[in-house]
Write a structure and sequence with these properties.
CATH superfamily of the largest domain: ATPase, nucleotide binding domain
Helix content: 40-55%
Number of domains: 2
Number of helices: 10
Oligomer: single chain
Mean pLDDT: 96
Bound molecules: 5'-O-[(R)-(carboxyoxy)(hydroxy)phosphoryl]adenosine, zinc ion
CATH architecture of the largest domain: 2-Layer Sandwich
């Protein structure tokens, strides 16, 4: 079953063709980060306008690279939310229009569920039940996943998402946008033990994350040690200290969730799951303690159409069809 997936929830215009929810035949991503870099973050109106310009060429490229015609597609899937409303409506309008024009079924997909499904785009996908940690620019959510349709939220961030913290700290350190990759590169040259940064936790809610205090702690260090902004070595130390604190928080909560649920499998996905230090710590700990760890390849951690196609495949197979009057949603 061939599904065309369309993703426009934030600042990537993406489309992909996936066979049977598992085999990626093509995945095309047109990133907009150079457009938003000068503003230090995503500007929703600019994102929406660029999606409108890019979406049809991106879909055409996805079909061409997969070597399939619209007639050969069995269904379409589009991200319904959460995300930026103006950005989501572009993908939704195109998804509905193509579904009607090609007379194919359409599935509406939850963006965070799609991130989890990126871990299934492999020859040896995980089995259920599992714990999934979705770490992106907008969310830091821990789930217990029972099957393709049922998942329970175990914990989330009460303030900033982990990716958002990377982006905000990159801005504080005057490193540019998007912050995650830049901080990772810089942190590789720094000593994480030079600066003492907090690992914020909420004792009465052990699976809840909080990253705004960590960001504030970095801001204090920048204020107290102005050489952070002029001395590349000191800046690298602070970047490394920050990254290590985020990794500690993410890995600690994920393990607590594994212990609480009794699950043996862990999926970590979303843009921050592309972080090399996080991947290394997860792999070491899972290996040492006998847990099965599933990390999507780097290109499928950040936003892409393949994960949307995979999620859509399972919805369509379960008989779900998106109502043509259905709208997008920003939260939830
Ligand atoms: O999943 P994603 O592409 O979009 C959302 O759904 O939000 O995640 C984007 C986030 C950004 O905040 C970006 O800074 C972060 O993922 N990110 C990283 C890395 N690559 C992307 N954070 C840390 N290390 C990375 N290598
Ligand atoms: Zn995402």
């Amino acid at each position: 079953m061939l599904i065309l997936g369309i993703e426009t929830s934030c600042d990537e215009t993406a489309a992909a063709v996936v066979a049977d929810g598992r085999r990626v035949l093509s995945s095309v991503v047109a990133t907009q980060f150079e457009l938003h870099a000068q503003y230090g973050g995503v500007v929703p109106e600019i994102a929406a306008r660029r999606h409108l310009e890019s979406i049809l060429p991106v879909i055409q490229a996805a079909l061409d690279r997969a070597g399939v015609s619209p007639q050969e597609i069995d269904g379409l899937a589009v991200t319904q939310g959460p995300g930026l409303i103006g950005a989501l409506v572009i993908g939704m309008a195109v998804g509905k229009a193509l579904a009607l024009a090609w007379d194919k079924p359409l599935a509406g997909v939850h963006h965070l569920q799609a991130h989890i499904l990126a871990a299934f785009l492999t020859d040896s996908p995980p089995e259920f039940p599992l714990v999934a940690l979705v770490v992106s620019g907008g969310h830091t959510n821990l789930y217990q996943v029972h099957d393709f349709q049922r998942l329970d939220l175990l914990g989330r961030s009460r303030d900033d998402a982990a990716g958002e913290a990377f982006d905000k700290v990159a801005k504080l350190l005057r490193l540019g946008y998007p912050g995650g990759v830049i901080i990772e590169r810089l942190a590789a040259q720094g000593n994480p033990a030079t600066f003492h940064l907090p690992r914020p936790r909420i004792p009465e809610e052990p699976l809840t994350f909080s990253f705004s205090g960590l960001k504030t702690a970095v801001a204090h260090q920048v204020k107290n040690h102005p050489e952070v902004l002029t001395d590349p070595g000191v800046r690298a130390d602070l970047a490394a200290g920050f990254q290590e604190a985020v990794v500690d928080c993410l890995v600690g909560r994920a393990w607590l969730a594994l212990e609480e649920t009794g699950c043996q499998r862990l999926v970590v996905c979303g843009g921050v799951a592309a972080n090399g230090r996080l991947r290394q710590v997860l792999q070491d700990k899972a290996g040492a303690e006998g847990y099965e760890l599933f990390l999507p390849p780097l290109s499928l951690c950040t936003d892409n159409g393949a994960m949307v196609a995979a999620a859509g495949y399972h919805r369509l197979r379960a008989g779900e069809r998106l109502d043509m009057s259905a709208d997008v949603f920003s939260r939830g």
